[in-house]
Design a protein that fits this description.
Chain A: It is a multi-pass membrane protein. The complex is a heterodimer of chains A (628) and B (262). With 628 residues, chain A is mainly alpha-helical. Chain A is built from 26 helices and four strands. A two-stranded antiparallel ribbon of chain A has the order 1-2. Chain A is globular and about 75 Å long. By secondary structure, chain B is an alpha/beta fold. Chain B has a six-stranded mixed beta sheet, sandwiched between helices. In chain B, strands 2-1-4-5 form a four-stranded antiparallel beta sheet, covered by helices on one side. In chain B, helix 7 crosses helix 9. The chains are: A mainly alpha (628), B alpha/beta (262). The interface between A and B is large, with 38 and 41 residues.
Chain lengths: 628, 262
């Protein structure tokens, strides 16, 4: 290979590393101080790009010079910084003390809201930005042309790193940020005005994201998918670098930039997979990233978020459960074909949400990528039926949970080595790998379009019959999984969640049990995915996307994370509402985002949790909550 | 009969020696206290016996079997129960369920998928709770107990596997004075009845001098004195580096306490 080509490839890797670092540095700073992993950071980036494609051309009309171009870029970043301040004051300030799952969900609510706002303001069409005056052409390097704007970007990363270093080491604000990153409670105990510190940090973080977005406009048109595509990259960079470490983010961005630049030459299809594999390897070797430190708060004992106490159904609940089963059975007799389809989907999602509750509520393993195992099951079933095997539906449905379990066992092997926010990030990363594979491996998976013609066997072809197939399988799976929650295995998972130290001291191999639990949940999700593929008649990558994972989390949040059966209620309510309201409004995502945020702020215990608190009960769980 | 033999354990953290040639023994039914100022290496020594800390060199032998450097859950299987400085319990479970969990693990049934966990080994758990005076609270959530009672439950959990040795890290930390005496008496009785060796660290001088059969005094990773409470109390080096004058007086008081047996 030509050495000059390698140099240029490496330079373009440096340019993307630089952009990635600018964005990730903001994310890692905000996490360090607030301990919130801000999903909306990608939205800040997108807003930066949209503001820049709006502002910069106007400024260039006034005066065509590089100075006005960069003035416009900085101005956009400042505006995004102000949006960050507004979000801190209005939302984040209220959720600093809630469990991290709720924080992630609430910031994802912002993502949804911003998506709809951007669509409303700028429309669905990509908006290309102007090129920077004076940097429109290439420079000759070793006989090849290299865009001069990319050269400039290469310089931006180290410049931002240098400026951040000055801020962190030469200003009072910077010293406080570093102190808070090490021990937030101590900073509070020393009488530092935390509200102002957090607001300023959010400004700086959002400013950096906005700057990253605004700087992209000559390379990349502003589009409405930028937010989620960048946030996964930014997560990966901050996790590899060590959350809270700016220098770590810089190192990680450099490595990833080069990996992408050269990976694309060797494995053009699997660069994404390479990046996530790097992340998995780094986290297994160094569970807190390259330069990260264990969270001081991680060693403190706090009441777990999830199912608090188990008991058998009492008579009223038995009657309720009986009525629910009866209702499930009569649906095809009283409802039209469309409603039967919706009911089928509700049953499928109920199983998926229940399997997620098994992980989150029982095992304390917050999975942000549960759609991966749902999707693996759906793709396994769909491809078995439509692919060269032309397998029958029955076989496909039997293999779907095995596929889900295999995927969960593979990824879970790495995931259970971590805890807390790192665990959540790794589940998300693995889900993105599965998504990328299904998206990019067009020959097998049909890429973006997916595969159609996934129909049930002839005997189950009618909507009503297939509904009963789903109902029987789902009810059996839920009863079995509930049994496991009450069995020694479920108790062991809950014990490990309550106190891993104590579990270890009574001889429980925490990691192995978590891994088995993860695999079991993957199997149940895979089964749900297989059932879903046949009910839709097709498979496509949206089944594995982040929004699908968030839907599952929203279902258990709506139903009540502290109850065993709540997620089933949550799945029903959530999907029915989605079905009713989605056709009515063009702002479905905005409504969903606002609902998620409202749930986190007002009813963190969900519907089932709220009904529980209406009636007198044992004081026990209340005292646990009080200490939470 | 010698139950635990700790032979020349060493552990360094960077330039700091947390344990230097630490050797001692614990016999069945014997209560041995490890005392020393903060940072003396008590927790390190404890961790090396319990499996949380891997020693750089040296041997730990339990009942004639080498357990050096095994993971803590393997050491538990060899017969070492543990309680922690800050009580570690399963806070969303009841008192009985906490003990049942230990029994389920002891019998190797943690992967059982269909049995009803709340009914497994319940009678056995109740008997263990009876032994620590907590049977009446069996069905209360452990989260609503007073801290002294939580410590008793933790003791029952530690006893569930029928251990030969109990490791208790500051058993009375965070407890009211009255509860402390009760817990130490209970521990001493259990140890004698069941012939369990107890190794404990403690800051409370009263508890140490009135309940330990033997004492080890650790300072900067080294055992500077070992022996009966009387001989340690009399050791001038111990007085100098650890007890101080006020501590020596407290040790005298505790001596009088023990001379009036309960």
């Amino acid at each position: 290979m030509d050495p000059s080509f390698l140099v240029l490839q490496s330079l373009s890797g440096l340019a993307s590393a630089s952009s990635l670092f600018v964005i990730a540095s903001g994310l890692t700073l905000v996490f360090g101080v607030t301990r919130i992993v801000n999903f909306a950071h990608g939205s800040f980036y997108m807003l930066g790009a949209y503001l820049a494609v709006t502002l910069v051309p106007r400024l260039l009309d006034l005066s065509y010079s590089p100075w006005t171009f960069f003035l416009g870029v900085i101005l956009s970043a400042v505006l995004v910084g102000l949006v960050g301040v507004a979000i801190e004051v209005l939302l984040l300030r209220r959720i600093y003390r809630v469990p991290e799952l709720f924080q992630l969900l609430a910031t994802f609510g912002i993502v949804l809201i911003v998506q709809d706002v951007v669509l409303k303001v700028w429309g669905p069409v990509d908006i290309p930005g102007p090129r920077a005056p004076g940097l429109r052409h290439g420079v000759e390097i070793l006989g090849q042309r290299f865009p001069s704007y990319e050269l400039l970007l290469i310089g931006v990363g180290p410049l931002v790193l240098g400026l951040l270093w000055l801020v962190m080491h030469r200003t009072r604000f910077g010293v406080l940020v570093r102190a808070a990153t090490q021990d937030r409670e101590m900073v509070g105990a020393l009488g530092v005005n935390q509200a102002r510190l957090f607001t300023t940090t959010l400004f700086l973080g959002a400013f950096l994201a906005g700057l990253g977005g605004a700087l992209q406009i000559p390379r990349l048109p502003a589009n409405s998918h930028m937010d989620l595509s960048i946030i996964t990259d930014a997560f990966v960079v901050t996790v590899i670098g060590g959350m809270g470490s700016v220098t770590g983010a810089f190192l990680a961005a450099l490595v990833i930039g080069q990996l992408q630049a050269f990976g694309i030459l060797i494995f053009p299809k699997v660069t994404l997979v390479l990046v996530f594999l790097l992340m998995a390897v780094v986290l297994v070797v160094k569970p807190w990233g390259l330069l990260g430190k264990p969270d001081a708060a991680a060693s403190r004992t706090v009441a777990p978020e999830g199912i608090l106490g188990l008991r058998r159904f009492r008579p009223p609940e038995r009657i309720l459960a009986g009525l629910a089963v009866l209702l499930v059975l009569v649906v095809p007799l009283i409802a039209d074909a469309y409603k039967v389809k919706v009911a089928t989907e509700i049953l499928v999602f109920a199983l998926a949400a229940f399997s997620l509750q098994f992980l989150v509520g029982v095992g304390g393993l917050v999975s942000f990528g549960h759609a991966a195992y749902f999707g693996i099951g759906a793709y396994a079933a769909g491809l078995l039926v439509t692919g060269p095997f032309k397998a029958p539906m029955e076989l496909a449905l039997a293999l779907a949970p095995l596929a889900g379990a295999a995927g969960a066992a593979l990824f879970g092997f790495f995931i259970v080595r971590l805890s807390g926010i790192y665990l959540a990030m790794l589940t998300l990363a693995f889900a993105q790998i599965v998504y990328a594979v299904c998206f990019q491996w067009v020959e097998v998976t049909g890429g973006d379009n997916g595969v159609v013609g996934v129909w049930p066997a002839a005997w189950a072809a009618s909507r009503g019959t297939y509904y009963y197939v789903v109902a029987a399988v789902v009810l059996a799976a839920i009863v079995a999984l509930r049994r496991v929650i009450h069995a020694p295995f479920g108790y062991t998972l809950r014990a490990a969640r309550d106190s891993a130290t104590r579990a270890d001291a009574i001889g429980i191999d925490v990691r192995t049990h978590r891994w088995l639990g993860f695999t079991l949940a993957g199997a149940a999700a895979g089964l749900a995915g297989g059932l879903y593929a046949f009910s839709k008649g097709s498979i496509d990558p949206t089944m594995i996307s982040i929004p699908q994972s968030v839907d599952f989390l929203a279902m258990i949040l709506v139903g009540g994370i502290q109850t065993v059966m709540g997620p089933l209620v949550g799945a029903g309510v959530f999907h029915a509402l989605k079905d009713v309201f989605m056709p009515l409004t063009e702002f479905w995502r905005l409504a969903l985002g606002a609902t998620i945020i409202a749930m986190v702020l007002l009813f963190p215990r969900g519907i089932a949790g709220a009904t529980l608190s209406l009636r007198p009960r044992r004081p026990a769980p209340a005292s646990v909550e009080a200490s939470a | 009969m010698t139950l635990l033999v700790v032979d020349r354990l060493n552990k360094r953290y960077g330039g700091v020696s947390a344990a230097k040639e630490v050797s001692f023994t614990v016999a069945a039914g014997e209560m041995v206290a490890v005392i020393g100022p903060n940072g003396a290496g008590k927790s390190t020594t404890f961790g090396m016996v319990g499996g949380q800390v891997k020693p750089d060199s040296g041997m730990v032998t339990l009942d004639g079997e080498a357990i050096t450097g095994l993971p803590s859950r393997a050491i538990w299987r060899k017969g070492v129960g543990r309680t922690f400085q800050i009580a570690q319990t399963f806070v969303t479970m009841t008192v009985a369920e906490n003990v049942q969990m230990a029994l389920v693990s002891h019998r190797g049934r943690t992967r059982h998928l269909f049995a009803d966990a709340t009914r497994l080994y319940r009678d056995e758990a109740l008997a263990l709770l009876d032994g620590v005076g907590m049977r009446a609270d069996a069905d209360r959530p452990v989260s609503e107990l007073a801290y002294g009672d939580v410590k008793r439950v933790e003791l029952a959990v530690a006893l569930a596997s029928g251990p030969k040795l109990l490791l208790m890290d500051e058993p009375t930390a965070g407890m009211a004075p009255k509860e402390r005496v009760g817990l130490m008496r209970l521990t001493a009785r259990v140890a004698r009845e069941r012939r369990i060796g107890v190794l404990f660290t403690e800051h409370d001088i009263d508890a140490v001098f009135s309940h330990a059969d033997r004492l080890l005094v650790l300072v900067r990773g080294e055992i500077i004195a070992a022996g009966t409470p009387e001989s340690v109390r009399a050791d001038p080096r111990v007085k100098q580096v650890y007890l101080g004058e006020a501590g020596a007086r407290a040790a005298e008081r505790a001596k009088r306490l023990v001379e009036v047996p309960a």
